Description:
The protein is an alpha/beta fold. The chain contains ten helices and 17 strands.
Amino acid sequence: MITDEYRIPLTKIIEEFDLEKIYETNGMETVMISRTDVNRPGLQMVGFFDYFDSNRVQIMGKVEFTYLEQFNTEIRAEKIERLFSHRIPALIITRGLQIFPEMLEMAEKYNVPLLRSESATSAFMSALIAYLNVELAPKRTRHGVLVEVYGEGILIMGESGVGKSETAIELVKRGHRLVADDAVEIKRISDNTLVGSSPEIIRHFVELRGIGIIDVKEIFGIGAVKDEENIDMIIHLEPWEDGKQYDRLGMVDEFTNIMGINVPSLTIPVKLGRNLAVIVEVASMNNRQKRMGYNAAVELNNRLMSQMESQLNL
């Protein structure tokens, strides 16, 4: 399931960054932000509105205020009105700067929220963009279990009843952390990063057939759970099939594509007597080694080739 529209209410940003409300509009709870980029309207103050995206949050700092200070009240009001007339979602003033009376007047006239932050402009912009990139990231919900194993985010997938939740509980008992069970919400926060989390309503809960629903945080403690984690690897669990050829060397890297990002993946057959938790632990450490440039299968192959060459040269 893919979410088609990504928006967050302005009130959530106000709460997250503890912004001061200089002018609170009617129905501000309905103001929605849909752009991950923000804008400093320096060019707009001089009258250039070509390619101006009025849906972005606008941020003014010391530079813009210094520019506006050199004009009289009438001209300053005209320049500010041009910006507000585009029905921007909000204007945020940084560095705790004193608001121009004309700015408050235009905010009231065009019903635009006027907010203020004590933070430095560049630092605030960076933090806000990073926050919006996460909150407005494309989302997809996948059936599976997400656990953190030795710092690696492992997404375990497979058919119902194959043992995903049982494996997750065994991993938790071995000191690792549960992120999500059954439904995993996946966000693409950059061109090469996926972050997984649990829907809030089922967060920290796991279903075990024969037992029912358990609360992992209450049973194993707060250190056994985590709210979100990068997805570094995908493990597909499937019932063992006699006669099927399974990869025994690992020379060929496999990937699963999620929202345009190829994630390293393994297919692990499930059979009575196999300790899946230990296998997932080893897979996690092996995946980290590969990222650091060491591949055990390639190393073994190089040793064999070297030995064969030595024997041929005898």
